[in-house]
Amino acid sequence: MSDFHQSTAPSPSSQFPASDIETSPHEYSDVDSGFGASIARTENSYSVTTGLGIYPYVYENGRRYQVYREGAYLVPNDGEEIERLDLFHCIFLALLGGKLYIAPLGQGGHRVEHVLDIGTGTGAWAIEMAEEFPDAKVIGNDLSKIQPPWAPKNCEFEIDDVESDWTYPENHFDFIHLRSLSGCFQDWDMVLRRCYDHTAPGGYIEFQDYDADLKSGLGTVPNGPLSRYWKVVSDAASSNGRPFQIASTIEERIKAAGFVDVTVRNEMWPLGPWPQDERMKEIGRLGRSGLRSAFHAFSSALLSRVLGWDEAQVQKLCQEATQELNDGSGQLYVTAYYVCGRKPS
Ligand SMILES: C[S@@+](CC[C@H](N)C(=O)[O-])C[C@H]1O[C@@H](n2cnc3c(N)ncnc32)[C@H](O)[C@@H]1O
User: Where is this region: Disordered (predicted)?
Assistant: First the structure.
């Protein structure tokens, strides 16, 4: 229950429907928690709701998940996941030599006044963007309220579902950023069309993620537990209607949405300290550490809800994949995609 006390947050934004705060699609029997909140349980999960300005969560197999649009995103939002997101934030930046984006922002008369970070997570990117552009207003939205309260004044966070209708003005944002969102949406083309509609003429969109295709510096990926993990989880995500294999399709999708001058930058994202180059070796260390934590985060709710696995099966799959990752002899990596495009003026 310690998470309950850590999860105090400002009152919800107007985009957080009150009905969603108090209810969950699951059938729960309410139990009085003794401190003004209600705790509802099923066999392996429980949710906490309260009217005290504290955000509700659902707990399942030892992990915490968002209640807003419960089930739309099957990855936890607890402390362990927040650490993983911050670590991945460092990797995305390190692969760009410390830069937050590849788009030619501020060049050729382009002004950065309104920025949107879709699915902002911990808000780390949005906060750093607000620091880099102190005159711009940066909005980060997410299903989960896991952003810190100490963001710069020009950075705001909203609870929102970007698969629902948008309330932002059209032709408004000078830059829309989407990072690490593969597996989040049922209809990427619809989300990208909305991005187009809400980008100001001459403004930019940027997508950043790694693809879901495991590769090896030795040429062939060993046919071991890691490959099995990758296949089971990717197949389950696809069956769930929110596939992981998105990054390599984004260039075409962004063009189809209407953006022009589309640029793609690919970087190797090593999953262990096997590269010779010292900088890549360090990124590989981070990559391995992040993946260890991602194994359980990506699979627990997904495999139990979609394939009916129990937690012991999930743990076994993750442990075996972790063992192979720690062994490191496979020289594994994935490819990072940084894709940006411009809305014609
Ligand atoms: C893997 S995290 C990436 C967070 C952040 N973009 C980053 O790069 O650190 C994916 C985030 O997308 C959010 N998300 C998933 N579906 C969403 C939706 N329909 N609307 C808004 N946010 C969503 C999740 O809550 C989660 O915080």
Answer: 1-29
CA of 26 to the centre of ligand 1 (A): 22
Ligand 1 pocket residue status of 147, Cβ below 6 Å: no
Q: Where are the domains of the chain?
A: 2-73, 81-342
CA of 197 to the centre of ligand 1 (A): 21
Q: How many angstroms separate the CA atoms of 20 and 77, rounded?
A: 17
**239 CA to centre of ligand 1 in angstroms:** 20
Task: With cut-offs at 50, 70 and 90, classify the pLDDT of residue 39.
Answer: very low
> Does 203 contact ligand 1 (Cβ within 6 A)?
no
Task: Characterize the bridge pairing of strands 199-210 and 137-142.
Answer: unpaired
Per DSSP, the residues of 22-76 read H--SS--EEEE-SSSEEEEE-SSEEEEEESSSBPPEEEETTEEEE-TTTTSS-S-
Return the DSSP state at 166.
Answer: P
CA of 229 relative to ligand 1 center, distance in Å:
22
Q: Residue 29 pLDDT more than 60?
A: no
Mean pLDDT over 273-288 rounds to 97
Q: What is the pLDDT of residue 54?
A: 53
* pLDDT of residue 5 exceeding 50: no
CATH architecture of 81-342: 3-Layer(aba) Sandwich (3.40)
Q: Which atom of ligand 1 is nearest to the CA of 178?
A: 6
Measured between alpha carbons, how far is 274 from 281 in angstroms, rounded to an integer? 6
